[in-house]
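Bench notes, afternoon.
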Amino acid sequence: MTATTISGARVDIRLWADPAEVEEQALRQLRNIASLPWAVKHVAVMPDVHYGLGATVGSVIALKDAVSPAAVGVDIGCGMTAVKTSLTADDLPASLHPLRTALEAAVPVGFAMHKEPVVAPDAFWDDFDRLKPTVQRDKALRQVGTLGGGNHFLEICLDTDDRVWVMLHSGSRGIGNQLAQHHISIARTLAHNAELPDPDLAVFLAGTPEMAAYRHDLYWAQEYARRNRAAMTELVAGVLKRHFPHVTFDEPISAHHNYVSEEHHFGEDVLVTRKGAIRARRGELGIIPGSMGTGSYIVRGLGNPDSFESASHGAGRRMSRTKARKTFTADDLAAQTAGVECRKDVGVVDEIPGAYKDLDTVIARQSDLVEVVTRLKQVVCVKG
């Protein structure tokens, strides 16, 4: 489809979402972003856009010699991994509850972490002491290979050919959040941010010690998030090998959707922040998940320059967690996740499919950004 263009104070706003369906809070945020003096060309807005801290979730922002920590998000490096296996639907047992139990035993969820680290410290950890806020090394180590809570999940899925896939969604856990909050608070105090329409959009400027410190911690956290997903993938593979000794695995598809990347667009070297968006260069595989009952898509990027070669990171919420808890019951959750082996209690009602936008509509609105490779439907879903 063709994006809708809205004039901004400094650059335009290009929406792959229906403007009439974007909440007013999010539109105000987008106008604030479009007024930033460092913005290049336009702000690209994905069809799953919704309100977030400072910058909207589902926004792609290219800044010249500047970066806004809030335009990355507090879960630095949050993203997805999907792996196709050699298993088919016929290999799965009639009851999937024992498999879900085994997965939950292997991968800690919520606030839980491993009793002992599942990865050995290597050269990557030599840089730990240079991180700016005070964080606990032991905790960070034991959270590698853990899921977290909220919208993070681990799933066993079937594709349209009945092949079994592993898919998971997680990020940099507690340490990424600590690093993000620390640097957002510093950015708010800098003089060049004093006149911004929203202090949460505060930026660091190239060539400053504050920018250097942030980019050091940012890239460390992005790598931590990648390693976290890789460790979980290995733990899940171990569970599947115990249940299905003959199983083999394809190469993982893995990508961040809350991150910063140094890129070249429209003749400029820029720092691109994707907050709730994936990179979708031509031929690049990506993952666009729905909710815990609706499935997900594996997609291939079309390299659309107008989106800064990006696409949505999921279906996107259509209501807040608080509203979802007031609107739906555990019985509603059970009905909307029928056929999926998962938690169906009130503790995860805020993740009910009804709280999310329609995934097929989101996919249809970005047909010029990605092409569909296959659809996945979860049969097991582990939530925090």
